[in-house]
Amino acid sequence: MKVLVYGYGLMGKKVAHAVMNDADLELAGVVSPVFDVQPEVPAYKSLDEVQDDIDAIIDFSHPANLDSILSYALKNKCKVVFATTGFSAEDLKKIEEASHEIALFQSYNTSYGVAMMNKMVSEFAKEFFEHHFDIEIMEKHHNQKIDSPSGTAVMLYDGINNALDDSLEPTYDRHSIHRKRERNEVGISSIRGGTIFGEHTVMFAGQDEIVEVKHTALSKEVFANGAVAALKALMNKDKGLFDLKTLY
Asked: Is residue 8 within 8 Å of 16, Cβ to Cβ?
């Protein structure tokens, strides 16, 4: 399978390396508007420059590139792994619509540990909530991360909210709120500093006791390897939209 990596920042480089190290995949090139170092494979500034036949794309770039990636993938019947964060509701709708014709994977986090964490907190949430535990989500990332809260924090919230029949309300800024905490409120807090790869905690706070489920990423390789695993899971799919729940 010939794979194109879209984005050649820190994550893009890790993904390119992971693809090259996989015996089932061939790195056909990388796409980025700028290159701080010249790759050892064909480098393109846009998808318009790509002449080779491509089977799949792994995207670790920016939501602004979504339209061009989908257009190329639909035209060439490529599978795509979207691991970019910051997609809007409209962007996600475009991905869902395209999945009626091609196989797509979309997740804000591609690590196995986060997949398991998401399953755990979604499963436990209803039981904790019925026993009057408050639910809070905290995420920490490096000081270069632009978006907040992280896509993973939003994903964790969505899983918990779905488990509770969409009865919850997220709160992102308590500084401007002068009232007691509401029963159905879930606070989502973001911390930015240093070189933190990524840390996510879901806290269930009850009367005189606290239960926390936490995931800490110790390197970017965990996300690169997860993206490759996601792509390989798409190999036998003709069309459809898949996520971490379909992988594990």
From this structure: yes
Among residues 94, 145, 232, 237, the one annotated as catalytic is: 145
Per-residue DSSP letter, 146: -
Residue whose pair of structure tokens reads 């800490």 in the numeric block: 216
In the residue annotation, 145 being an active-site residue is answered as yes
Domains and CATH numbers, the chain: 1-108+219-240 (3.40.50.720), 111-215 (3.30.360.10)
Catalytic: 239? no
Predicted confidence at residue 175, as pLDDT, reads 84
pLDDT of residue 178: 86
Angle at 77 between CA 42 and CA 86, to 5 degrees: 75
Low-confidence ranges of the chain (pLDDT < 50): none
Residue 37 has a pLDDT of 76
What is the reported pTM?
Answer: 0.86
Within 13 A of 74's CA, how many CA atoms are on the CB side? 14
Residues 6+ apart with CB under 8 A from 92: 106
Active-site position among 13, 14, 140, 141: 141
CA–CA gap between residue 232 and residue 56 (Å, rounded): 10
Q: What is the predicted pLDDT for the residue at 55?
A: 97
As given in the structure block, the two tokens for residue 248 are 């594990």
Q: Side by side, which strands form the sheet with 209-216?
A: 169-171, 185-192, 134-141, 199-206, 209-216
